[in-house]
Structure formats: structure tokens, C-alpha cells
Design brief:
Keywords: Transferase. One of its GO terms (molecular function) is hexosyltransferase activity. This is Glycosyltransferase. InterPro entries: Glyco_trans_2-like (IPR001173), Nucleotide-diphossugar_trans (IPR029044). The protein is α/β, with parallel strands linked by helices and 387 residues long. The protein has a domain at 3-226: Spore Coat Polysaccharide Biosynthesis Protein SpsA, Chain A (Alpha-Beta Complex). The protein contains 12 helices and 9 strands. Helix 6 packs parallel to helix 7 (234-246).
Length: 387
């Protein structure tokens, strides 16, 4: 396969994910779109990840393994981009896994709509609880305009909220990324925020595949969310850098940006796990961080429903009083999260039951039951005699 024949370059940063890496790579090499380049960048792993990568590269010529000292996922993605030759780029994580038709469907939709970016939906895999369920959290269908493709002018109020800024449910036209010199930030956390938000704002043509094609693992101990305490200000710094560079862009989606950032602030407070990290976030925001993010109280209706109350407490309460407010609102959120997980479990069980019912209702299953009936009868007779 020549460079010109490569349709998609898949870039995968890898750091100590030996437990999940084979599942991830199997789902990539097994894609129905065959004309792909698979660039795996080992970010200084200390487990068997590199050996696993080399094993796959020895069996599949499409797999290219690169190495760097530990510089985090953003720099690994940048290195991968330097070697990419595909018409499109996709950035997948080494602990996730993917529908076998994901690249084909996103590639074809991108070609059909001449898109700069194509976004798909995803599923959650609850690592500690052992079940998987589809979710709208990564692509909100109700926030996608009917007319595709769209951009910051035609979907201004929802440009940064119709999808997550996580990088792995999007495919990008490589020439678009090169035209705007987009690169990932060299940070442990939130290194994809700037890249993803900037791309969404700069794109002239954004399209979607409203199918759940990516499965994201939730609850991994070494995930970036789980390590937020090591750099709790990273999300705020990333969004501040994005705002500083793009707020003067014609058509900048100011309202969508403000609502998105408030969601990031709430998410950060919910995910830090000690007082020092909490206090660092609180002090940063109160001592100029909110101003740097261009967040201020607005007229009624500018923000989504929960933000006005949240922002009033953040700007007026003491650190201890705000923590008490968060604890109460967090309890309510926990109740909602528990209810959502219960719904997810129920839907997952129902989906399995539907699959079983479909199999049992199939012609092949009924024929199989007929053919194996003598064997089952014989087994029952043997058990009867033995008893």
C-alpha cells in the first residue's frame, strides 16, 4: 500500500496499558476499512506494552511503532502526526476499543459531506462493574442541526456542547489540521482540550455519524481523570489558552464556550479528591481565573439552568461554604448518577435478553434444536438410569 492509498491514519498513544492493549489493537487491525496506517507511539511504558506493539507490527505491515520518553499523550499524538500519511486522522486511546465499521463509516461520511471533522457517538464500559452501555454523552443528537454539515455560524449556541472535547470520537481531514497548524499541548491532563475545541471552531464543515462506534472505559485507576489531583488546574489553563487565541475569531461561539467552561469547572471540582487540589482550584478561579476564562454572571437565560446558582456560590462563598454547597449538590448529582447507572444496567440486560431472544427465534436455532434433540433425550435417559 502506497502513501497515496492510505485513507486514514490511526494514531494511538500508549503508556502502560498492557491489560487492555490487545483488545484495542484487535479492534483496530480488524477494521473493515483496510487502507489504514496504524501509528502506535509508546510513551515510555514500563510494562509489556512495547512488546505487545512490536508483536502486532511483526504480523501487520500497517502497524508502525514509535517510541519516546514519557511526555504524555499529547506529545505522543504530535509525534504520530509527524509520520501520518492518510487523508484523515483519528486519535484513539490504547485502553478503549472500537466497532469494526467505525473507520469505514466515518471515512465515507466525511467524503460524502466533504467534511473537515466527522463526529460519532460512543458507549461506556464500566471497568469495575463489568457492563457496557450506549450513551448520548459523547454525541448529543438533539444538539446536532438537521442540516449537515454545519459550523460555528450555523450551530453557534451548541458548537462546543453537541459533543465532548475528548478526541477519540472524531476523524479529522489531515490537510485541515495542517492548514491551521493544530498541535496538542504537552500536558498530563486536558492535553486534547485546546486541539479539539480549536478544530471545532475553525472547521467549515462538521458532520456526524449518529452511531455508537467507540467504547470508552470508565473507572480505570490510571486514567487521566483519576490523576487530576496531580495537576488540578490543567483544564482551566487549557481553556484559558484556547479563549485567548480564538475569542476574536469571527463567529466565535461565546455563549457555547461559556456554558462549556462552566461545565468543566463543575466537573473539576467533582473529580479532585483532596483538600489541597480543591483549594488550588477555588483560589485559582477566585483570584483571576474566572476573569481569564471570561466567565461572569450574565442575564437570565444565557447559561443553562444550574449555572446561575453555581456561579453565584462560587463567586460569593468562602472556600468552606462553597465546599458545603458542592457536597449538597454533589449528593443530588450522585443520586442522579446512581439512577443513570441503574438505567444503564437495566438497558444492558434488556439488550442481552433481546439478543438471546433473536437467536432463539432464528431459523438456524430452531433447526439446531431439532437436530440435537436425540442427544438431549439420551442425556436425560442416562441421568435417569444413574439416579
Amino acid at each position: 500500500m502506497t502513501d497515496e492509498e492510505v485513507k486514514v491514519s490511526v494514531i494511538v498513544p500508549v503508556y502502560n496499558t498492557e491489560e487492555y492493549l490487545p483488545t484495542c489493537l484487535d479492534s483496530i487491525v480488524g477494521q473493515t476499512l483496510r487502507e489504514i496506517q496504524i501509528i502506535c507511539v509508546d510513551d515510555g511504558s514500563t510494562d509489556a506494552s512495547l512488546d505487545i506493539l512490536n508483536s502486532y507490527a511483526s504480523r501487520d505491515r500497517r502497524v508502525l511503532v514509535l517510541r519516546q520518553r514519557n511526555q504524555f499523550a499529547g506529545m505522543a499524538r504530535n509525534l504520530g502526526m509527524d509520520y501520518a500519511v492518510g487523508k484523515y486522522l483519528v486519535f484513539w486511546d490504547s485502553d478503549d476499543f472500537f466497532d469494526p465499521t467505525a473507520l469505514e463509516k466515518m471515512y465515507l461520511r466525511s467524503e460524502e459531506d466533504h467534511a473537515d471533522i466527522c463526529v460519532c457517538g460512543g458507549s461506556r464500559c464500566y471497568e469495575s462493574e463489568g457492563f457496557e452501555v450506549e450513551t448520548d454523552a459523547f454525541l448529543f443528537p438533539q444538539r446536532v442541526p438537521r442540516q449537515l454539515p454545519f459550523n460555528r455560524f450555523t450551530n453557534a449556541d451548541r458548537l462546543l456542547s453537541f459533543t465532548t472535547v475528548m478526541i477519540w470520537n472524531k476523524i479529522y481531514r489531515r490537510s485541515f489540521i495542517q492548514e491551521h497548524s493544530l498541535r496538542f499541548k504537552p500536558a498530563r491532563n486536558a492535553n486534547d482540550v485546546y486541539f479539539s475545541a480549536a478544530a471545532l471552531c475553525l472547521a467549515d464543515r462538521i458532520t456526524v455519524v449518529p452511531e455508537h462506534l467507540v467504547t470508552y472505559r470508565v473507572g480505570r485507576a490510571n486514567s487521566l481523570v483519576a490523576t487530576l489531583d496531580k495537576n488540578p488546574l490543567a483544564p482551566f489553563e487549557a481553556w484559558t489558552a484556547f479563549y485567548n487565541d480564538y475569542h476574536e475569531l469571527p463567529g466565535f461561539p461565546a455563549r457555547s464556550y461559556a456554558n462549556k467552561v462552566m461545565g468543566v469547572i463543575r466537573h473539576s471540582f467533582r473529580n479532585v479528591s483532596n483538600w489541597d487540589s480543591y483549594a488550588a482550584c477555588f483560589s485559582y478561579l477566585r483570584e483571576g481565573g474566572l476573569v481569564g476564562l471570561a466567565i461572569e454572571e450574565r442575564e437570565e437565560g444565557y447559561y443553562v439552568d444550574w449555572i446561575d446558582e453555581f456561579l453565584a456560590h462560587l463567586t460569593r462563598d468562602s472556600a468552606h461554604d462553597f465546599l458545603a454547597y458542592l457536597s449538597f449538590s454533589g449528593y443530588r448529582a450522585l443520586e442522579r448518577e446512581t439512577a443513570r447507572k441503574n438505567r444503564d444496567r437495566l438497558e444492558s440486560r434488556r439488550a442481552r435478553e433481546r439478543e438471546i431472544a433473536a437467536v432463539k427465534g432464528s431459523c438456524a436455532y430452531r433447526i439446531g434444536r431439532v437436530l440435537t434433540a436425540p442427544v438431549r433425550v439420551a442425556k436425560r435417559l442416562v441421568r435417569t438410569k444413574a439416579s
